[in-house]
Amino acid sequence: MADVLDINDAVDIDVEDEGEQSVLRLKDKVVSRKGRGFGPGEGRQHEKIRGYESIEAGDRDHGDEPGPQKSVEGWILFVTSVHEEATEEDLSKKFSEYGTIKNISINLDRRTGFLKGYALIEYGSYGEASVAREALNGSSLLGQTVGVDWCFVKGPKKTKKRSKRH
């Protein structure tokens, strides 16, 4: 972030003539601002922001309805209660039956080196991810029942409810 000093009005100061008066007059006109987007190039900076890519409604369009949301890359499933000794191969073998897996992300505990108990499985299409979610939620992996659900979910619309107090 940048610190910017804006001078509100053009002030001609001759330091030799006025001394402290000119400095005080200058201090009154100065406004200190912090952050992005200040200065002469302000308009151009905001136009650059509009150029970022966004997530498009691909396979499934919900509008404002609650439900699963696509990440930038694809549809991600959150797998819970995964056995601590499960490997990426075990997960890949089980989940690849329902479609092409784009990415598998498993996190290991630094202290023990075992799986933390959850994994993220990414599919390219909504149909593949949805079928895998329905089929594998509650299924067994290495003797443990796993839970499979959407990783990103858009919740219901928030409405302001006012409770009446008596």
What topology emerges from the helices and strands here?
Elements: E1 2-7, H1 15-18, H2 20-29, E2 30-35, H3 42-49, E3 67-68, E4 75-80, H4 88-95, E5 101-108, E6 115-123, H5 126-136, E7 140-141, E8 144-145, E9 147-150, E10 153-154
Antiparallel strand pairs: 1-2, 3-10, 4-6, 4-9, 5-6, 7-8
Explain this structure to me?
The chain has 166 residues and is of the alpha+beta class. The protein has helices at residues 15-18, 20-29, 42-49, 88-95, 126-136, and strands at residues 2-7, 30-35, 67-68, 75-80, 101-108, 115-123, 140-141, 144-145, 147-150, 153-154. A four-stranded antiparallel sheet has the order 5-6-4-9, covered by helices on one side. A hairpin with a 2-residue loop joins strand 7 and strand 8. The longest helix has 11 residues, at 126-136. It is elongated and about 85 Å long.
Strand order of the largest sheet: 5-6-4-9
Low-confidence stretches: none
Order of helices and strands: EHHEHEEHEEHEEEE
Global structural class: alpha+beta
- What value does the average pLDDT take? 78
The best one-word shape is: elongated
Rg calc? 28 Å
Into which percent range does the helicity of residues fall?
A: 10-25%
> Strand share of the residues?
25-35%
Give a quick account of the main beta sheet: strands, pairing sense, barrel closure: 4 strands, antiparallel
Tally of separate helices: 5
CA-to-CA gap between the ends? 50 Å
| Total beta strands | 10
